[in-house]
């Protein structure tokens, strides 16, 4: 009851902590619910097969997503026949998937929506109208496209656009041709679905299938029930992984910033309540009792805030999940599955976080001496202790050391060192702010003091006198500006530098790039006369099938584009990282598995630098096409002396500059990175708003006596409000300036490191709109949180000059 009454009587002081805990718990609850909600369900095209056998996936590396290596052709046929003979199995269907896209529609890279007609038996849908395709130029497609049987459509495939007659429409997604036509467009087989006879046991069939898979030594994985979720497109798996990183970062940032705000709020509150704690000590309270009082207040604030946050998180999780799906951070069809224990755990976490944030302040309150009850002045005589001086200087030195290291680090550690620079300098300057306030404020406001009027003088002296109040306002502004500018500027600088590097490695005049398609078909590159300059992309696997490698098939033009002779038949070029990982050296053999499941030994003719080509293996174009009929070219380059003919839009290609292609090739990834960046910046700014508003509300509530004295001295209400507004503007300006001081060493060090490692000119790209937005937001919020309460107080009875000064 004592803690509840104390919180109620001093609610402005605890409002920031309450809101921070509530928001932090809400974010943690939403993130945990979405992280544990699993996938998007069993894909429709395989939902009709109770048992699915998939080729062995090998080792999966976080952030890398590729289809498992297919079975060898003979092994796939043998396994399908064995599975078809199992008791209870009606049919074993090999799923043949290939690239297909209706002309004039968009399709995400990585999707392969074409299948052989026999695969319809594996889906949860069937024919809606018409009949199955029987001829080479017939297909059945999703009725959502709006076509009917008999219509003629143009479908883009790996070898070019083809005209088909619609034989029927389906109640689900995909294009279905005859099995013979599909076999011409498919590399290997990765999935065999089993349809069961009526009354057959799924468990028994799955056990028999596992014995069949392991008995022949070919390997594979048997999936049933919800485990078939993993058969989703690899594009969806990558999207889920990116979304998981975003949600994890949001939860971690929320927990960290919540502790920061709670600790700052309680530290400021304890500093303002020294006289109160001194009175408690005078009447006999022990340090343990004082410490218990502060901790009880923190637990009360944390419990109420965490309860509200858990309820909000549970209620808002479905809506936030929909926003993430629209933003591309979760795949289509993703839904949140509620779990009762998640909000309960988040509630306990929120209370613990509030207690942890207030622990240091509680120990400081316990050290208040009884003589503090005699203090009347609000002057902060000794805001810096020896420990704070030492900690501030050490942490600042660490941040500067990280800045120096950033200038000479490789690309893998550069971002971490840049973040270490910003974190170290932010923490260091935050600790040193009380020592910097008086000299810095004096220097910055000296020109203003020379102007006529008492307002500038009062602003300067109030800020220099109430050092703790000024520091508590400056610190969150510093952190917001520092991290907002650092995050946005780092992303913008690295993206620009990477684009310039990739464009500089290719000796070409322009690029033939895909237009609303995942790649260029053979027809497009042949029509443009650039087949020898095309980058035919595919995926290969090291000999044991444990890791996927991004490979490219090149023609004779590769030597002119990259200054390396094109590999010949039976040979391969690899990058340094791949050569080191697999022990491949020039002159030795490398065993790889292709998209059709065939294994070959290739002679390594050269080892390229990791930055020389945007692929891991370089192969002859003919080899790639022979093993992967559905491969598409990422780009085809035009060099000097080559001219492009007019290309029809049906080919899905357009000519752009090399820099434009390099920039647009990673558009989707860059878009997700920017969404991630903006979410983190928005969260940081939101928490800063809480900290600034809480500090100013608390400080204003405790300045009633000072304001009354100011009114008795002859100041008008407008002049008093102007003094408070001036203090807020100066505090925000000081925090913004210190934030930029934090960012510059990190950004300049990163620029120097990128310039040295990439070998191209790199300029610092400061995101000035975000600087203005962060500073402007802090300023507007600070003015509202300080001026409105002061104006309300001064316009009331307590603000009249004749009011008694307590």
TrEMBL record:
It is a multi-pass membrane protein. InterPro entries: ABC3_permease_C (IPR003838), Macrolide_Exporter_MacB (IPR050250). Pfam families: FtsX (PF02687). Its main location: membrane. Residues 250-368, 680-796 form the ABC3 transporter permease C-terminal domain. The chain crosses the membrane at residues 12-36, 246-271, 298-320, 340-362, 389-409, 415-437, 470-491, 672-699, 720-747, 767-794. It is found in: Cell membrane. Keywords: Cell membrane, Membrane, Transmembrane, Transmembrane helix. It comes from the Bacteria. PANTHER family: ABC TRANSPORTER PERMEASE YTRF, MEMBRANE COMPONENT OF TRANSPORTER-RELATED. Belongs to the ABC-4 integral membrane protein family. This is ABC transporter permease.
